[in-house]
Design goal:
Layout: E1 2-8, H1 14-22, E2 29-31, H2 32-43, H3 48-71, E3 76-79, H4 84-97, E4 100-107, H5 110-122, H6 128-131, H7 153-158, E5 171-175, H8 184-196
Parallel strand pairs: 1-3, 1-4, 2-3, 4-5
Helix pairs in contact: 2-3, 3-4
Length: 199
């Protein structure tokens, strides 16, 4: 059983890369963001603290579901921006299930990350619960997005341990500053090689 882990800061291209990998590795993709969206729509939130609790709950659901798949002998692609706590929980999962694991760690220039983050919120292509920080669903007259300031954008995530790997397995670091220029075939070959080396 294989566990392909996609990690990196927000807007680093994890979902895009996951779909590219799925063409060669026909495994289900588990995304924390999709779980969060279900929680936003079902429970809502009335403060940033409540939103963070939903984020923590989504991380637990993500890893429990991943463990269920692995325990049943299945393989999967896991998409999350693992903070320190979620990374430790992922390592514990690996120790229990012992899958072949490889991490694709996506990095990018901070200005490019911020511009991509801002553009996707302003384009309204994502669930609005991601963009709103203080309450969801919005009240009439609320702004459609609550964009983060550029100052300290990446640091807010790095301080929570995102962008670091504290779990097992080889790590493939991929620069996605220009996501369109990503050599998908080369990445697929690297992932396959990293998994096969653990056979």
């Amino acid at each position: 059983m294989d566990l392909i882990i996609l990690s990196g800061l927000p807007a680093s291209g994890k979902s895009t890369v996951a779909k590219a990998l799925q063409g060669a590795f026909p495994y289900p993709i588990l995304e924390k963001d999709r779980i969060k969206e279900c929680l936003f729509d079902t429970l809502g939130f009335e403060s940033h603290a409540e939103k963070r609790r939903l984020d923590a709950a989504a991380a637990r659901i993500l890893l429990q579901t991943a463990e269920d798949i692995l325990q049943a002998g299945g393989s999967l692609i896991l998409d999350n921006n693992f903070d320190t706590a979620a990374g430790a929980a992922l390592r514990a999962l690996q120790e229990r299930c012992r899958p072949r694991s490889v991490t694709v760690l996506l990095t990018a220039d901070e200005d490019a990350l911020y511009e991509r983050y801002l553009a996707r919120d302003q384009a309204h292509t994502r669930h609005p619960g991601h963009a709103l920080s203080d309450r969801y669903p919005p009240l009439p007259g609320d702004p459609a997005v609550s964009p983060q300031a550029r100052e300290g954008f990446a640091r807010r995530y790095l301080d929570r341990g995102m962008g670091q790997v504290n779990w097992e397995g080889p790590v493939l670091s991929v620069d996605t500053t220009d996501l369109a220029a990503l050599d998908r075939e080369a990445l697929i070959a690297q992932v396959r090689s990293a998994l096969e080396s653990q056979a």
